[in-house]
Each structure stands twice: as C-alpha cells, then as structure tokens.
Design brief:
The protein has 256 residues and is an alpha+beta fold. The protein has one domain: Glutaredoxin. It is 44% helix and 14% strand. The protein contains ten helices and eight strands. Helix 5 runs antiparallel to helix 6, helix 5 packs across helix 8 and helix 5 packs across helix 9. The two termini are 28 Å apart. 43% of the residues are buried. About 15% of the residues have low confidence.
C-alpha cells in the first residue's frame, strides 16, 4: 500500500533526526506549573516532519490537502464525538493532544494510521482524543472546533485533516478561516450549528476540563497516551513512551 510505504518513510526520516536529541527531551513539550496558576513554557525539541517532501508549510485555508486520504483512513470505523471505533470495543486507547503540536502531527501521520487499520477497523479497540492544550491561545478554539465537528459525526475527520494541514507552530494560522475550512472539508454539514457550538461555554469548558485531567494524570507533554481494557487496572498511563505502531498494538493486545 503506497500510503503505508510513505508513512514508513516519513517515520524513518523523523526517527533518524530525533536520535540527535536526548531521549528524555525528544518527545516532550514540557509545562511549568506556577503556584496558584499554570503557565506554559515550551521546551525546544528537534522534530523533523516530512509531508509531501516538506515543501509546503501548511496552514493554508485555501489549499487543504489530503482530504480524500483522511476520509479513507477513518471511513471504516464508526465515530462518536471524538471517539473512533466500535462502542463495544474492549480496549480504549486515549490520546491527550494539542492540534497545534507538530509531534502530535507526526503520530497522526506516521503511527496511528496503522493502529487504526489493524486494531480499530477490526473492532479490537477504539481511540478517543482528548484536548491537552499547551501550545498557545489558538489551541483551545481549535480543540472546541474539533469537538463541535464530532457532534456531527465528523470529529476524527476534523482531527486528522487539521494535522495534515497544520501550519507553523503557534504562528496564528489557526484562525476562524482555517478552522472553518477544515470543518467544511471534513464533511461537517451544518456549519451554522458548528459555529455556534464551537464557541459555546460547554465545549470550551470541555477542552479546559480535559487539559486539567491530563495535568492531574501527571502528563507533561503532547501527545500523551493512556489505555483501558479488561486486563488493565482502570485507566493505565502510557505517557509518551510508545513511538511505533507495533508498540501501540502490543499495548492494546495486553490490555485486551
């Protein structure tokens, strides 16, 4: 499959670059916590994301790419808000991510597609996405926009399409025009309803709530993962340690 070969090529190139960075830092975007308040400090990491030869910086609302590829990836499993997979799936893999995070983009393109094809589409697992907004002020509106798309059954289309068209980190690209373009290309039918819901206190509060949940778990970077299944003791934290599709598949097998 050409898509699989391309993912493997991108992953190999990225991992080669990441070996130049200390293992303790290479996948983490650390948070610093102040007394009585939380403030963000993004630790510099070296991550090479190669998309279509690396010639496009992304973030272009007028030129969204890989719409059909995203549709193909998520079309074989049902969606419920930001959960992809059959409701009765025994194992739930939980991702805490930030839509502006380039490392999350790398996982979206290079790691999770194989997990979706091998474990989610087969009914063995489902994947839920929870916002953990640590990059910048546009992360919360973007996260709420994804939830609002999920209310119309297009949440995972939104997540995946956003990542594939992600612009330079925290550069201001994720504005209303970009969010709306992603929604339309994701197949959101009622844009007026989506617009109303994405700015509601309910959905913005949900983004803030899952961010607090990630902090309560002790997560300090994105993406971070947890898993729940018949063989786990409730929700078990995986953190940011898993890096390959095979490692995620093994974790799902163990949890189920």
């Amino acid at each position: 499959m050409s898509n699989k070969r391309e993912r493997e090529k991108r992953r190999e190139q990225r991992l080669q670059e990441e070996t130049k960075v200390d293992a303790g830092d290479r996948r983490m975007r650390l948070l610093q916590f102040g007394a009585g308040a939380v403030f963000l400090a993004i630790v510099a990491v070296v991550v090479l994301i190669v998309v279509n030869g690396g010639s496009d910086s992304g973030g272009d609302a007028q030129n969204l790419k890989e719409v059909s590829a995203v549709d193909s990836l998520v079309s074989s499993a049902p969606q419920n808000r930001l959960i992809l997979g059959k409701p009765e799936a025994k194992v739930e893999l939980i991702e805490f991510g930030d839509l502006q995070c380039p490392v999350c983009k790398g996982y979206s393109e290079e790691v999770l597609p194989q997990v979706i094809e091998n474990k989610v589409d087969t009914g063995e697992a489902k994947i839920s996405f929870k916002n953990f907004t640590i990059i910048g002020e546009q992360s919360t509106p973007a996260g709420a926009a994804a939830i609002a798309a999920g209310e119309q059954g297009r949440g995972w289309n939104y997540l995946e399409l956003f990542y594939r068209n992600q612009g330079e980190e925290n550069s201001g690209y994720a504005d209303d025009e970009f969010l709306t373009a992603v929604a339309k290309s994701s197949g959101v039918k009622d844009i007026a309803k989506w617009n109303q819901e994405r700015t509601s206190k309910k959905l913005v509060g949900e983004v803030e709530g899952t961010t607090e949940q990630a902090q309560t778990y002790g997560f300090s970077g994105t993406p971070s993962f947890a898993i729940k299944g018949p063989n786990t003791n409730g929700v078990e934290l995986l953190g940011s340690n898993l890096q390959t599709p095979e490692e995620f598949e093994q974790a799902i097998d163990s949890a189920g």
